[in-house]
Design goal:
By secondary structure, the chain is mainly alpha-helical. The chain is 71% helix and 0% strand. It is built from seven helices and no strands. α4 runs antiparallel to α7. The radius of gyration is 20 Å and the shape is globular. The termini are far apart.
């Protein structure tokens, strides 16, 4: 079975380097290998302790996979591993330019919610902003090792993601 001491670091648990930019195929492959090892059928005849440990490892693998697969959660987790708490619940301060862009997007959504072409153009702008922000997060974590900056960018990315979902819903309603 996977090394239980690796449970304090999801990257180590899956045998991956602690980086924001990870190989998702390698993550999936490591996950499947662990799931195969801890599958309940392999431990059906084992002791209660072995069965419980297998269940704990399967649960850990699922939690770790979900955390590392999501760019935002992976970034927040890396920040946490490096002692930076993004304080999502209490720190909602964002740069003025970012807030202005959010207000502009929201106004565009409200004003053009019946115009599919306009909403699709807005969606492309929002997704480009998301791609740009993810590139900045990658640079902040993997390049500069600036976890405070990464946490700030990730807080902004949460706003962008939430708006993108609303925008997708508005587009779906028109299609």
């Amino acid at each position: 079975m996977a090394n239980p001491s690796a449970s304090d670091d999801y990257f180590r648990f899956f045998g991956l380097e602690r980086r924001f930019n990870i190989d998702l195929a390698a993550l999936d492959q490591a996950y499947l290998a662990i799931q195969k090892e801890v599958h309940p059928d392999r431990h059906a005849r084992g002791s209660d302790t072995e069965q419980r440990l297998a269940m704990q490892m399967a649960t850990l693998a699922n939690t770790a996979l979900q955390t590392l697969k999501s760019p935002i959660q992976r970034g927040l987790y890396l920040c946490q591993l490096h002692g930076v708490d993004a304080r999502l619940e209490t720190n909602t301060a964002m740069p003025a330019a970012f807030l202005m862009k959010q207000m502009e997007w929201r106004e565009n959504l409200e004003e053009r919610e019946e115009d599919l072409a306009e909403l699709e153009a807005l969606a492309e702008e929002v997704y480009q902003s998301k791609r740009d922000t993810l590139a900045e997060v990658t640079q902040a974590i993997d390049g500069a090792k600036n976890y405070d900056r990464a946490a700030e960018l990730l807080r902004g990315l949460l706003f962008i993601d939430k708006f993108a979902l609303e925008l997708d819903d508005a587009i779906s309603a028109l299609v």
